[in-house]
Each structure stands twice: as C-alpha cells, then as structure tokens.
Amino acid sequence: MRIATWNVNSVTARLDRLLAWLELAQPDVVALQELKCADAAFPTMPVQALGYEVATLGTGRWNGVALLSRVGLDEVTHGLTGQPQYEGADEPRAIGATCGGVRVWSVYVPNGREPGHDHYGYKLEWLAALRVTVGAELTAEPSRPLAIIGDFNVAPTDDDVWDISVFEGSTHVTEPERQALADLRELGLADVLPRALKGNPYTFWDYRNGALHRGWGMRIDLVYANPAFAGAVTDAYIDRDERKGKGASDHAPVVVDLDVAAQAIPAAGAER
DNA sequence: ATGCCCTATGATATAGGA
C-alpha cells in the first residue's frame, strides 16, 4: 500500500498537477493539506474518476484538509477532540479515516506566526488536542496501523532546516513546538524518515529567492507512525520533482510504501 | 538545471504562508 501526504497550496490551483501526479505515483491513500476551498468547491469528480473516494474538510479561503483513498474510506472523523478555536472559529485542519485497515490522519498544524503571538499559543494547544485525539485511538486499537501525516509546521531537529541560524526567534524550531512533537512521539509514534531523491530530505522550499535550487528547505511534512505502521514501511521518499517547474506547490509530496500484509502476520510462530 | 513568490478574495490592495 502506498500512502502519501502533500500540502498542495490550493487544490484548485494545483488540480492539473495533482491529477497528473496521482496517475504517475499511483498512491492508494493521499492526505492533502491547504485545500484553500470549501467542501462544495473541492474537485471531487475528477479525483473520483481516477478511482478515489474523497473525504474533505474545508471552509473556504484558508486551511482545509482531505483524504483520498482507493482502498476504502471509512470511519471518517472531522476535527479533533477538544480542538481549540482561533478567533472564535473552528478551523478545518484535521481529518481522520480508516483506509484498507490503516488509520490515517491528515493534519495541517497551525503556523504560529511568531513566538508569543496568539497563533503560537493556538498552535501548541492544537498539537495537545491532536495528542489527546490520537492517543485515545491508539489505546482503543493498539495493533491497528496508524499514522498522522501532513504539514506539522515544526522542524523536529536543527538538521531539518538548511541553516538554523536563520531561524533564531522564529516559529517552527522553538523548544515548546519541538516538545509538542516529542509528546506525540511519547504515544509510541515514530518519525518515519523519508529519503531525499536529491540533496537534503526537505519537504518545503519557499517560493521566494530561488530557495529550491539554493537548497534552502525545511522538513516539516512528517509521517508519525505507530509500531504497526512503522514496522510495515518498506520505503519512504520525498518526491522533490513535484516541487519543480511552473505551477508547483511550495511543498513536495512525501510517499510511504507499506507491506501491510507482512505486518499483519501474527508474531506467534514467526521466525523472529 | 529546478532559476529568483504564490493564492484567494466584497480584489486594482491585503492577509497569510513559514
């Protein structure tokens, strides 16, 4: 099973590239972020035409997440348990579903803007709600493969940005944000590290200043997987080619291949 | 080369991104 996550920075602006990429990469499950459209405006029909079921959570101009699946799309959950509001609004930033026996969450973690900003506190509260929501699912079904995938808007380590000195005083690299990710990992989730097809394993490069070809990237699109998921991973890579050329998103897809059948074999009687 | 910001919106400026 091939599972991918991609912040598309507007699904309508990216539609041609998204459809072409689905045909090229042949993912079974895709988590999308930054749809920038309401549910009614999501291009459901052309995606369905490629064999995918679609679940979306979008309200309009900002945010928005979706799950596409051609291996079943069940138990859809919209939003987090105890999800905080921002300026009185419930923002569309998380959608969960069970796809072919694998529990998947597509998340678009708040940016935070700058340390001390209301949005920064909101980001930390949001990550705490994510931990509560996923923690309950892991407790209820500990042997089911599960992964949180999406744009976490946090670089887990200094090696996940091209130059840490540039980020002094900025969001994405602060200790509280990294602690929030550590708290997620405390649930038993592992950071599945994708290989880079070229250069460093970054997933985002700013549109400005030729960041892509200068190597000014960040690894902020992550795959946080429980043991049943992580143990089934056979490959993981960043599809940097999708960041190239005209009409690209500023994020590249992260692709994970799973051998779910092998993982499902009971441990009892196994060779190791 | 991959090449120097992009997207949606009560739009001809602005907010947000990270």
UniProtKB/TrEMBL annotation:
<protein>
    <submittedName>
        <fullName>Unannotated protein</fullName>
    </submittedName>
</protein>
<keyword id="KW-0479">Metal-binding</keyword>
<dbReference type="GO" id="GO:0003677">
    <property type="term" value="F:DNA binding"/>
</dbReference>
<dbReference type="GO" id="GO:0008311">
    <property type="term" value="F:double-stranded DNA 3'-5' DNA exonuclease activity"/>
</dbReference>
<dbReference type="GO" id="GO:0046872">
    <property type="term" value="F:metal ion binding"/>
</dbReference>
<dbReference type="InterPro" id="IPR005135">
    <property type="entry name" value="Endo/exonuclease/phosphatase"/>
</dbReference>
<dbReference type="InterPro" id="IPR036691">
    <property type="entry name" value="Endo/exonu/phosph_ase_sf"/>
</dbReference>
<dbReference type="InterPro" id="IPR020847">
    <property type="entry name" value="AP_endonuclease_F1_BS"/>
</dbReference>
<feature type="domain" description="Endonuclease/exonuclease/phosphatase">
    <location>
        <begin position="4"/>
        <end position="251"/>
    </location>
</feature>
<keyword id="KW-0460">Magnesium</keyword>
<comment type="similarity">
    <text>Belongs to the DNA repair enzymes AP/ExoA family.</text>
</comment>
<dbReference type="Pfam" id="PF03372">
    <property type="entry name" value="Exo_endo_phos"/>
</dbReference>
<dbReference type="GO" id="GO:0006281">
    <property type="term" value="P:DNA repair"/>
</dbReference>
<dbReference type="GO" id="GO:0004519">
    <property type="term" value="F:endonuclease activity"/>
</dbReference>
<dbReference type="InterPro" id="IPR004808">
    <property type="entry name" value="AP_endonuc_1"/>
</dbReference>
<dbReference type="InterPro" id="IPR037493">
    <property type="entry name" value="ExoIII-like"/>
</dbReference>
<keyword id="KW-0378">Hydrolase</keyword>
